[in-house]
Amino acid sequence: MADQLTRARLGGLGRRLAGAVFVLWAVATVTFFAVRMIPGDPAEAILGGPGSQTSPEALAAVRAEYGLDQPLLLQYLHQLGRLATGDLGQSYALNMDVGPLVVSQLGGTLVLALLSLTVAWLIALLLATWSTGRGRLARQIGSGLEIVAAALPHFWLATTLIVVFSIWWGVLPPISTADARGLVLPVVTLAIPLAGFLGQVMRESLTAALESPFVLSARARGESERGVLWRHALRHAALPAIGLSGWAFGSLISGAVVVETIFARPGLGRTLLNAVTVRDVPVVIGVVMIVALVYILMTVLTDLASRLADPRPTTSGTGAGA
Amino acid sequence: MTPADQLTTGRPRPEVALTVQNLRVGFGAPSAEDAVRGVSFEVRAGECLAIVGESGSGKSVTARSILGLAGAGARVRADELTLAGESVLGLTEPAWRRRRGRDVGLVLQDALASLDPLRPIHREIGDSLRLHTRLDATERSRRVLEVLDAVGLPDPHLYAGRRSGELSGGQRQRALIAAALVLDPPLLVADEPTTALDVTVQAQVLTLLQRVRSEGTAIVLISHDLAVVSRIADRIVVMHDGRIVETGTTAEVLGNGRHSETRRMLAAVPVDKPRGARLAPATETRPAGPALVADRPAVPADPRNRATPAVPLVAPAAPPATPGAGLALEAVGLSKTFRGPHGTIHQAVDNVSFRLQRGSTLGIVGESGSGKTTTARLALALTAADAGEVRLLNEPWSTLPERDRRARRPLMGAVYQDVLASFDPRLNVREILQQAVTGPASAGRARGRRSSAARRGEAARVGSLLDEVGLASGLLERRPADLSGGQRQRVGIARALASRPQVLICDEPVSALDVSVQAQVLDLLDELQRELSLSLLFISHDLGVIQHVSDEVAVMHDGRIVETGTAAEVFTAPAHPYTRALLAAVPRLI
Amino acid sequence: MSELEIQVAAGVDTAGGAKTAGRGRVTAVEVIAGLLAALLIIAAIAPRLLAPGDPLAIDPRAAFGAPSWTHWFGTDESGRDIYTRVVDGAHDSLLIGLTATVIGLGLGAILGVIAGTLGAAVDFTVNRFLEVLFAFPGLLLALLFILVFGPGPGSAIVAVGLSTAPGYARIIRAQLIRVRSSAFVEAATVQGLSRRRILTRHILPNTLAPLLVLGTLGVGQAIVWAAALSYLGLGAQPPAAEWGAMLSAGRTYITSAWWMSFFPGLFIVLTAVCATALGRSIERRMRHA
Amino acid sequence: MPRPGILRSAPRSATLAVLAGTAVIGLALTGCTSAAPTGDTATAVEGGTLTYASGDAEPTCLDPHVGGNYPQALVSGQFLESLVSLDSDGTVIPWLADSWTVSDDGLTWEFTLKDGVTFTDGTALDAAAVQANIAHLQDPATGSSTGYLALAKVTGTEAVSDSVVRLTLAQPDSALLESLSQPWLAIESPTALERSQDENCAAPVGTGPFIVDSWVKQNAITLVRNDDYTSPPADAAHDGPAYLDSIVWRFIPDSASRYAALQAGEVDVIDNAQPDTITQAEASDTIVHLDAPRPGASNRIELNSGKAPFNDAAVREAFIRSANVDDAVASLFQGSAARSYSALSSVEPLGISRPDLFDYDPDAAAALLDEAGWSEKDSDGYRVKDGVRLTVVFPVSTNQSIPAEQSLFEQIQATAKETGFDVQLTKLDLSSWYTALGSNAYDAVSAPYTKVGPDVLRILFDSAGITPAPSGYFANHAQLSDPELDSLLAQASATNDADTRADLYADAQDIVLEGFYILPLYDQQNHFLLSSAVEGARAMPTVSTPAFYDAWLTS
């Protein structure tokens, strides 16, 4: 029985890994063929667009350099081969290897995303705990705040925060700085809408937990409201929100596209937007691949975290990305 | 049960554990009627007082008010509310908290949900010690193991670290009781402590509670089930509509209940009532006239309408209609396995054979996980058996391809436990019945072109179905979600009857119902069987119900049928040890 | 997970929590959301009723006017009245949001239904496909689409529709599977109904019933997303009075004329909030209907 | 959206060939503090870090030999130097070359290099180094476009001595000195040039006052002072090393963030300042405005005379008269840009201005249209002729037109509508914009063009410019095909007599302006905003890039 279980778990892990590899392969394939659908000559794009007065010789040289003169299938296989060895190719526009570029931009985005996730968690927790068990008005205020927060577009929030905190009051820098001050506004910008989503889920499960029999049992033991909240209900409330962290990461990456541009922060989002604007295909593929990779990683971590927080064997996982 | 240590610590007991005088509890607007309206009782040390009533009678609210946990919006007033010799009226929340757990413990119904599923049980139990004593961690854990041992949890060292989900039903109910007893409170409030449990486990828990009482702890036991409380209660309080309608010793109440509500409840208990005996007043089974659309009309004041419990409509020995006229349903060597989540294999049904005679009832009884529901699904040919065959009216059934079986499906109806879920939520009663009346036949016809005569015929049939199950036609436009539990089950039965089936598969059709509603439904099924010569496959975990409805009984255990025979044989002279254990555990009135 | 799935998940519980409010009773939130929705719809259909001016009428001399009695929301860099433009923009913004939602919902419904009805192999394939789409979180899929098909309002609509489709598909597939294995479908089988009839009479109607709720909740998110693309210069372009484009145009002048971006943004938020509130309310009512 | 300079600058700088000695780069200063070199070096404070925030796109390569666009010029001017420079009057002055001679036939140039100059990697500046640079620029593998074109006539180099280098030309090129003054032809260490292109792009080595210390992509380039600096241009305000310890060169594409950062003191200098921030800056006493318009053509709308409806001069005139540009410029640019009535930048001395031709006069416009047969109006108020609406398709490049300019077009669209023009503005990314031009799918277009000297007219209006290059690009967007104009421009570029040349260009401009082929708007905008703590910063008189050699920070 135990043996069977172990084998089953190993099998699950294997399936999981195979699934991750499959998704990465599919992402690479989709992206490769999608960008080949872009109208226009990639060689021209490499040389700076149709306006750049390129000579046929230069085009031919570029085609040869980037292997664009080979049949599409061969190019695709080459691309896969390179990806398998971690080589993401050369940026058309940035004159450097995509791998190191993307890796160098990953750090900033990860710091931003993880900080935002933490802050969003804190805000959501505070709001949920404040507004739960205080009667209908508090619940409605809490719920209303969450819905509004979830509806706030990053770009508008960022702009409004800059106007208020940088331009009117001048207390926080509107751009990234060497110290942590520059992180405040971007993190708040990303955290507030996310907190709206997390808070909705958290507060609902908190409400459900507070109405459950085990909380009644705890109260019947003489547990205080705070004890009920911290010892019992919060953990249950956190479960679905933990499960959402994979999704949250994805949404933060989307947000980073906007936030990094507005706050002039280095990072994957800004790199991606620049690359899309100038149609720098290898960089787009590189960013997409690394985001997919990190995203898959995050969903696995999320699953693990969910399992740690909820060791019940019946846990059905989160379904995020899986 | 292990003869463990004393459950109690020998803490001195107050003579009177609880005094309640004129308790009133209201919710919502001050003008709204109170849920509890002037309840008074007293519980002494070492006494078990049972509060009995159907859902909505106010018994749970009363119980929770004793712990000051009636809820945030509740208005609790009383002339006196004394707990362990101290008045708790108007206590502040912190003061309440100091008493809860120390002066009074609470045991709830569903231990799986009543213990935090994310925390090991030793933490849950230790919480009381942490909150009310100054014991250090080692002392606390010693006491936790002590009390777990005392409640009869095997190997406390091993189980203390588990979560409620990793324990069996009996184990976790013991753990829950241990959590309430760890501080040895003079009073234990047990709110339906055995309701969701299998009958054998229920018996063990009742025995445990008996021990608790015998050691001097007062118990307030809340239950809807008179049979359960009769085992351990010293005195019984019957509640109805927020009032106490009857109070007395257990023997008095059970033997000589005076109030109509008490009598109704007593009459409705199916156990030991002969086959064919009415459980509910005839007017409630099929209320005549449109006025009677509710489950329980106001208790009639007219003494002629008073329930006459245990009076058989026909001679109890009278054999069911036309037995031996052939087989309605026959199962031969049914087996079914399921694959578990981690590749484990679970044998749900193992070589099960049975025969259902025409016009009779075969009761299948078993505890949870015994394979009875899978058996029902196999009989309905909703799942394909791994081995074996089901034959319907001596013709192939389970071996037919679904396409061919469809034409024969009208011969077999089904009544479900969760009847609400079995209705398409988009349809109202009329649409549900209409569809059932039209049945698969309409699929062949041109859509929407049925003649008006045919439509009139359908409408008439829907009306007569409603009559058959005793529902007023005023309910036709309602959706099942807006009906009461009993009404829903009647709609479910009407739907099952719509195709004029010969065989009815009833899977726990009354388990979700209050005992008096259960009585009405059982009576109804009984009458219908007689009138329509139905053959019933009746599946239930409740031996009382099975005993009451069945001509023949099959006892299932771990996927196998361990014993079959006529109801009389099985219930009076059980051959298999498991059957004997089951029967011994059945709670009976006195 | 997607924003939508969260909204749906949270909405279910909200509806449960709202049981104290009673089934039929109209809450204050619903009244406000309903009024706002009505105003937005009027603005989209007949903007002149709410703002009689010309949204494109320029008045260079009145440029960069702060909010005042004559210009409630101020004026923009060309002296156009921002209130008039915001009202006028309701049409484009709602249309973009609606179209994107219809595309997303339609694709999602097709994928979800295909996955749920055409057998295990198809289900497996569609599921893997959705997994792959989910590995392009959020805006990524939309950006990729725009990279291929070029920026513009049309691209933005399809891009938003495409990136929301996986979320819808998963909700619908889950709903379909829930319905398919529900007791009432089994009951219909027992009644002898054919597979096709069960599918068309019970499974599909019950699966697709929540589409209205999904759509309402989704419109809010779609408007925000489309506005984000406009903001990044990849969607609708100024001087189109689309809110995202207005906001984008206004951002240039944020240091001197905050109202140019504040009010369009405010209406994006209001619309999204309104959609969420209405979606939840419909959900609650359908549950109790 | 800020304008990503990678794309925008390529065509502009690619043709930035400088004609002989006619460029005068204006350096207008507004605000209360002078940011120009004041000679007030006695009070200069050493040390400090200056943070520069660029709204242009981040260069992909810091070596301006590679490609050669404006963002590269902006930053490379801090660490690379050219052989010659221009002073504020447009006169060529010595820089790395102390002196130069030209043979009578104009085919041989000899440059004598400044003594004792070394590159920051220790390599000496000598004739071989200049040879290596020219070879590098002319090597197709380098991928130079601007420098490559500027050296098109140079056929050979020779080291006459260690300090004298000789260039041999195929044809006389009176623009050679101006070409060599451009940052795209700066001289780099030959040792460094031998590295791989990737390495050289990351940190080119020159003789300049600063050295590339690090480059964190998508974030900042850090430049540190060259303590051994000895080679300031002849018009510099001081000698020796720069005052600043270092410069942090950041990329903040969002104009509002950029200005907010300047306001908050997070950065000291920003470029691409928007009109409203310029107005705010001028009201503030902590921010100084530096206006440095670029040379070449003025910003203007070109009307496609190659097809209907603008093949009719009356319709062109009607369009121009129906557009209220003055009010629009006043409201949108709030005084930071002056209306232009010329084909050339106001810094071009040979430009002529014709305010009389560009009055806003809707009545006259209506009369002209009536005469031209566009007398009917449809239900939307647009003019129609033979059932065809009077439509002006106007693709706008979001990369090349700043938001205020896009708003200007919208205002023109609105005022022209009153007369009955249906102006269809479509905002396009650069690639789609080029496609629209290449497929002749436009009636009006605005394309900036930077080139020192009136010879820009030949590129923009010579009929040869109508034929697209193989890549589809062409410069004569007005599709002006007039043999008389062609001949005037040819004569002007051949003559050596200044007066004749001026007359010929004036005649040519009259043809362009009086034919209503273009609607001039204003000079190509190039505004810097500086914190008032920054002293001594200036824009180079060559192509208006900022220079911080003389700059210092008041504490």
UniProtKB/TrEMBL annotation, chain B:
Keywords: ATP-binding, Nucleotide-binding, Transport. It comes from the Bacteria. Pfam families: ABC_tran, oligo_HPY. Residues 18-266, 329-583 form the ABC transporter domain. GO terms for molecular function: ATP binding; ATP hydrolysis activity. GO terms for biological process: peptide transport; transmembrane transport. Signal peptide: none annotated. Residues 277-303 are annotated as: Disordered. InterPro entries: AAA+_ATPase (IPR003593), ABC_transp_ATP-bind (IPR050319), ABC_transporter-like_ATP-bd (IPR003439), ABC_transporter-like_CS (IPR017871), Oligopep_ABC_C (IPR013563), P-loop_NTPase (IPR027417). It comes from Cryobacterium arcticum. This is ABC transporter ATP-binding protein. Belongs to the ABC transporter superfamily. Transmembrane segments: none annotated.
Automatic annotation (TrEMBL), chain C:
SUPFAM superfamilies: MetI-like. InterPro entries: BP-dependent_transpt_permease, MetI-like, MetI-like_sf. GO terms for biological process: transmembrane transport. It is a multi-pass membrane protein. One of its GO terms (cellular component) is plasma membrane. Residues 90-279 form the ABC transmembrane type-1 domain. CDD domains: TM_PBP2. It is found in: Cell membrane. The chain crosses the membrane at residues 26-46, 94-122, 129-149, 155-172, 203-228, 257-278. Keywords: Cell membrane, Membrane, Transmembrane, Transmembrane helix, Transport. The keyword Iron does not apply. Pfam families: BPD_transp_1. The keyword Protein biosynthesis does not apply. Belongs to the binding-protein-dependent transport system permease family. This is Peptide ABC transporter permease. The lineage of its organism: Bacteria, Bacillati, Actinomycetota, Actinomycetes, Micrococcales.
UniProtKB/TrEMBL annotation, chain D:
Residues 1-35 form the signal peptide. The keyword Signal applies. Pfam families: SBP_bac_5. Keywords: Signal, Transport. It is found in: Cell envelope. GO terms for biological process: peptide transport. Transmembrane segments: none annotated. Its main location: other. GO terms for cellular component: ATP-binding cassette (ABC) transporter complex; cell envelope; periplasmic space. PROSITE patterns: PROKAR_LIPOPROTEIN. Residues 91-454 form the Solute-binding protein family domain. Coiled coil: none annotated. Belongs to the bacterial solute-binding protein 5 family. This is Peptide ABC transporter substrate-binding protein.
